[in-house]
Amino acid sequence: MATGDMRLSVAHQTGFGLRLAAALSSPSSHFSSVNTVFSPLSIHVALSLLAAGAGGATRGQLLAALGGGDGPDAADSLHALAEQVAQLVLADGSEAGGPRVAFADAIFVDASLKLKPAFEHLAVGKYKAETWSVDFQKKAAEVAGQVNSWVEKVTLGLIKELLSRDSLDETTRLVLANALYFKGAWTEKFDESETRDSEFHLLDGSSVQAPFMSSRDDQYVRSSSDFKVLKLPYRKGVDKRQFSMYILLPEARDGLWSLAEKLSSEPEFLEKHIPMRDVPVGQFKVPKFKISFGFEASDLVKGLGLQLPFSPQAELTELVNLPAEQNLSVSSIFHKAFVEVNEEGTEAAAATAMRIVLCSYTPPVDFVADHPFLFLIREDTTGVVLFVGHVVNPLLPAY
C-alpha cells in the first residue's frame, strides 16, 4: 500500500473510531459517569474481517462505514490496511528499547462448519488469524473460556474475562476475536517524589483529592481558546515509530462533552492541534489513573449506520458453507480494554469478540488536568489511534 493510500485509509479508520468515541463520551451515554477506554483499532479490525466474509448490501454497508467507500478497491484497501497496521504499527519494539506491543486475530468456528477457502486464505494471509474448530452446540461455556484464555495470553493477563460463560450458546456459529497489548515508558519519566495529592473537580461540581504527577521539564503543549492539548511521547526504539499519549483538556470544568463532539465531527481536528514543539510550563499536573472498561458495542456500531450485519437480512455468505435454508447475522460485539498511566509510562490492552449466530517560547504555559478530560494513544508517523477514553474521576476503581 502506497504511503498516500495508507494515510487516507488511516484517516477513515480514525474517523470511524472517533465517532464511536463521541457516542461513548456524551452526556446522554450510559457511560457518562464512569471513566472509559476502548480501542477503536481493535473494533475496526474485527469489522474489517467481518467485511471479508460479507456479500451484497451488507458488504457495501461495512465498506462504506469502515473505509469511506464501497467501490471495487474499497475491500482491498481495508484488508491491506489491516495487514500494514499489524506489520508496521503493532510490531513489538521492546527488544530495541521501544514499547512492547502485541496484536493477534483469531477465528473460532463451530466444528459442524468449514470456513470458505477464500475467506480463510484472506484471514490467515492478511490478518494473520489463528483458526480454531470448536463445539458451540454442546460446549458453548467451555468455548467462552477458551476465547478468554487466548485473550488473556495475548494481553499478558490484563484482560482475563472478555466473555462471560453465558455470552455464547448453542446458536453461536463463529466468534471473530482480536486482542491488543501496549506498554510504553515515557521519554521523560515523572519523578515519583514529586507526585502530590491535589483537588480534581468532578462534573457534578464536587471534588476529590487525587494523586497528580508533576514535572519542571518543558512539555509539548498547545493552547487554543477553549482547550489545551498535551503530548507525552513514549521512548522510541530503533525504528521510525513514535507512540504518544495525548490529553485533551477543556478550559471549562464541564467542557468534556463538547470537546469530545469537536474531536469526532471536525475532520483533521487532532492533526490541527497536535503540539509540534516543547514549551516552558508553569504549573504542570497530570493525574495518575487506571481504567478497566467493558461494554457491548453493537448498539453504538448500529448508530454509525451499520444495521444490516445485525439483521435477518444480513448477507454473511462468504464466511462458511451453510445449508440453503440457514443464514448468519452478528448478535453481539463484546469489547474490553484496560489502561494504567503512572510515573513510568502506560500499560494498556484491549480485546474484541464478535458473536455470529444463526438468525433468529512563549511565556510558561500551565497545564493542570484537574477536571474531566479526553485521552488517546496514537502512533504518530502513521496517525493510527490505538486507544481512546475519558477520565471523569481518577479515583474510580479500575474494576
From TrEMBL:
GO MF, one annotated term: serine-type endopeptidase inhibitor activity
Alphabetized PANTHER family for the sequence: SERINE PROTEASE INHIBITOR, SERPIN (PTHR11461), SERPIN DOMAIN-CONTAINING PROTEIN (PTHR11461:SF366)
SUPFAM superfamilies tied to this protein: Serpins (SSF56574)
A cellular component annotation (GO) from this entry: extracellular space
Family annotation (InterPro entries): Serpin_CS (IPR023795), Serpin_dom (IPR023796), Serpin_fam (IPR000215), Serpin_sf (IPR036186), Serpin_sf_1 (IPR042178), Serpin_sf_2 (IPR042185)
SMART domains tied to this protein: SERPIN
Domain of life: Eukaryota
Pfam families: Serpin
Protein family per UniProt: Belongs to the serpin family.
Name of the molecule in the record: Serpin domain-containing protein
Segments forming domain Serpin: 18-394
